[in-house]
UniProtKB/TrEMBL annotation, chain A:
GO biological process: maltodextrin transmembrane transport; maltose transport
A GO term from the CC aspect: ATP-binding cassette (ABC) transporter complex, substrate-binding subunit-containing
PANTHER family for this protein: MALTOSE-BINDING PERIPLASMIC PROTEIN, MALTOSE_MALTODEXTRIN-BINDING PERIPLASMIC PROTEIN
InterPro entries: SBP
A GO MF label: maltose binding
Name this protein carries in UniProt: ABC transporter substrate-binding protein
Organism encoding this protein: Arsenicitalea aurantiaca
TrEMBL record, chain B:
Protein name according to UniProt: Sugar ABC transporter permease
All residue ranges annotated as the ABC transmembrane type-1 domain in the record: 60-274
Keywords assigned: Cell membrane, Membrane, Transmembrane, Transmembrane helix, Transport
Family: Belongs to the binding-protein-dependent transport system permease family.
Record GO biological process: transmembrane transport
InterPro entries named among the record's database cross-references: MetI-like, MetI-like_sf
Topology term for the membrane: Multi-pass membrane protein
Amino acid sequence: MKILRTTSVLAALAASLSFGTTFASAGEVVWWTPNFNEARARELVAQFQEANPDITVRLEITVTDGLPQRILTALQSGAAPDIIDVQHGWVNGYAQNNLVIPLDDVVEEGRDDYVPAALDYVSWNDQVWGVPYRIETHAIIYNRGHFEDAGLDPDAVPETWDELVETATALTGNGRSGFAITGGGEVGNTIFRSLPFIWMNGGSIVSDDLTRATVNEPEAVEAVKFYTDFFTNGLSPASTLENDGTANRRLFIAETVSMYQSGQFDVPSIAAENANIDIGVMTIPHPEGAETAAILGGWSFVVPRDARNPDEAKVFLEFLQQPENMGMFTDTFPARTSAMDLPRFDDPILQVFKEMLPYGRPVPIHPNWVQITQAYFDGIQRILLGEDVQAAMDDAADEIQALLDS
Amino acid sequence: MVRQSTGLLFVLPALVVLAMLIAYPVFYTGLLSVTDQQGAFVGTNNFAAVLGARATPQAFWNTLWWVGGSIVFQVILGVATAVLLNQNFPGRGIVRSVTLIPWVIPGIVAATTWAWMFHTEFGIINYMMTAPGLIEAPIGWLSNRDTVLPVMIAINVWKLFPFVAIMVLAGLQSIPNDLYEAARVDGANFWHEVWHIMLPQVRPVIVAVTLLLVIWGLNSITIIYAITRGGPANLTLITPIQIFRLAFESFQFNQAAALSVIFFAVTIVVVFIYIRYLASSPAEAK
């Protein structure tokens, strides 16, 4: 997360040019939120202003493409806004580099109400450095009609790995692929979909203390083999090596894929583009006798160390974290349990995604994580190209070990 | 003397700007390559790290194949097209303009379109081959070990051969007609003309264009990055993409700088050898 000094000088220059308006005047809170939140953010700001006329909240809308770089630039430039929406996984890096301030006083009131994994994600050194507001995990989206075509009961979904393979095998044929995995696109797609299988099998990519590469140990190798075998055995589309999450959704919409992993955000676009599909959702199957797992994703608010008006920002955060506001603001699920009771989360299609939440885990936090996942992903692609699983993971482990040691 | 120093004064602003925009970044890249993220001197650590990475030798070989393969076909196809377009036939102007289209299309647009055309499931190329029964199952053009780099090279050839064609065509048109007439008097046929008049006359053009193609090949990122991002499993990873990844995806600016320095050195050697042995021949001298 440390970036060259010069880069930050350039960054400061760029920031002062492009975000010259970021400098807040007294009592003004500048809030960066991504474009998908804009409409709801404006509504909340209007409500807040009515109750707090002495604090002005100024919205600046960000886009997710290139957001990490833009935020890092702002955090290091000394010209930061007062509140920024960031993904949970980024918070620790900011905290360790002293770029944001602790927010224990904000979450104190509702601490027991927060989903523990979400708070863990943004904690470092026994302090909380972000206020999580949105959480989500993957589940498996499936085509109920395809189940019936294959003579399967769409309500009796597979629960174990063996059952998943059986079901996928039964669904495959006549131009349909039973279960689509990802093997292309950006690294994150395949990490999000394959790492949970390693976790539920008791394995990991790196040891908990981040000193050892563990991706070539038996539990991990078995899980990677389970994942890649869907392609090797012809249950995942021939284009798997080109496919990311979006491509799988397109194939699902085109009804050439019967099951694939994704989040609840895919459901509306499937319904909009192919109304014939009777959408089902199931929890991700686990090995016999083990529990399922998923990567916990989502967003938190942080307050930069250089924020002009941190006190006013905290007042606004207090408002945003109220269960009804958080429940209204989130695109997926809120990070507070009590907010989950709101009517909008009663939709039956969301129930399974909700059931997956307690199994969501944070990804390891390491400065070289991007390169570590790249090494692992290269290994997965070599397997999909025909290399032996153990050999590919041994090579990946060597590369990851070097990254951990450096 | 006075004149000279006045002249120097006039070009000084331009020189300063050039120094800031070219010399400083080159120098700074060198500096970055021997320091760590805090700016402390670390000797050859960054070089050791990038040379030790599994991807580096693979990217190097891929780069050689990519540049070599692209240039051979670009030049052959380009020269052949130029000779063809130099003939007299009806509609020549239209054909000349149409030939230029691939070169005019923005790289990212072309790359994305080709990616879709080569896609295993939705791609029109597999559709055209499976529908009449040429092949039984769709081919994973972009996901097969043996096809993915050749496909990238083919796209690059398609993109740049019109440039070669138009440059060589310009050269062909400057050949005086007397040469052809003299040859015909001596009983030369078309192939004799190509071999003994056209090619020797446009040789300097071909040499210059090839040098440009080498440079463009060595620093091209767009086509490969937009289609495969260097994947699958680094099969299409070329060194410029590796540098880009190190710097802008992993934020390892120092290692990226080290790799750039190595790449720069190798490129200089290649270009030097090329100019020394291929460009400076008697034909060129005149």
